[in-house]
Amino acid sequence: MSAAIEWIALALVMAWVGFAIAGPVGVGAMALVVLLLRGWLPVAGLMALLAPLGVMLPALALRQIAAGMGVAVIPFGSFELVVFLLAYLVFLASAMGVVPVDLYRFGYAPLPVAVMVLALCGYGALTGQVFLPIVAVMGQALWVMGWGSSNWFDHVLHAILVPVTIVVLILRVVGAW
């Protein structure tokens, strides 16, 4: 079951790319390419490179496609993105052993995961954002069911978020000029 979820997640992420290139037609075309040509080297290579995709990347893809089609979406603030970027870079450094505290290990334990999910739900309630609480709870559900990684962070974070966040921040700075 987790393999099917990973392929659907990759199809959603590539549909996002298709939407950026060709609009709504690109969504269907890219999703079909991924789902029908899973054995094709470029598609299989993308899966090998990006897996596990978790919940965050497909959710961001759906969110951006919906926003591009006119659905009202509350954008992340630049301050939120900078805080996320800095915190995530510290998290990645700790997971690689650069920082003496291993924050990644908290993703294996039920109590820290529950606290993090509740904190994200509380943040969502305070800011009116439903996206982060949905991602946190969906990631927790997949984690509890044992679908995919045994670490909650693998469901709700992805290393590709670093360059994506940097690009969004640069585009905002350039757009402000």
Automatic annotation (TrEMBL):
It comes from the Bacteria. It comes from Roseovarius gaetbuli. This is Uncharacterized protein. Keywords: Membrane, Transmembrane, Transmembrane helix. The chain crosses the membrane at residues 7-37, 43-62, 69-91, 103-123, 130-149, 155-174.
